[in-house]
Amino acid sequence: MTCTDCTATREAPAWPMHNPACIYCGGRLIQKIGTYQIPQSEATTRRRAVLADWVAAGHDEKQIRALCKGPLAVEPIEKAKVEV
């Protein structure tokens, strides 16, 4: 199933919604937190909370971390397995 929030992000990169059922949305949210004008300690706390929420939703932590290190995390049009 295609993630509607990832589809919206392709059209409008500042799209504010993130679906916990989508691993790409979790990676993208963690990436976005780094762009907020907040202290580094708060950013780290928020990133950890998002990671914990997405792992609790059943996603693999290593895959999320790999997505965070790459370009803007958006579900590919032709879905491929996330490489770790």
Descriptive terms for the model:
single chain; 84 residues; mainly alpha; globular
Q: How many E strands?
A: 0
Q: What fraction of residues sit in β-strands?
A: under 5%
Q: What helical percentage do the residues reach? A: 40-55%
**Which consecutive residue ranges, at least 5 long each, have pLDDT under 50?**
none
Tell me the overall shape. Answer: globular
Explained architecture:
The protein has 84 residues and is mostly helical. The protein has helices at 4-11, 23-33, 40-56, 61-69. The longest helix has 17 residues, at 40-56.
List the helices and strands and how they pair.
Elements (H helix, E strand, L loop, with lengths): L3 H8 L11 H11 L6 H17 L4 H9 L15
Helix pairs in contact: 2-3, 2-4
Brief summary:
54% of the residues lie in helices and 0% in strands. With 84 residues, the chain is mainly alpha-helical. The chain has one domain (19-79).
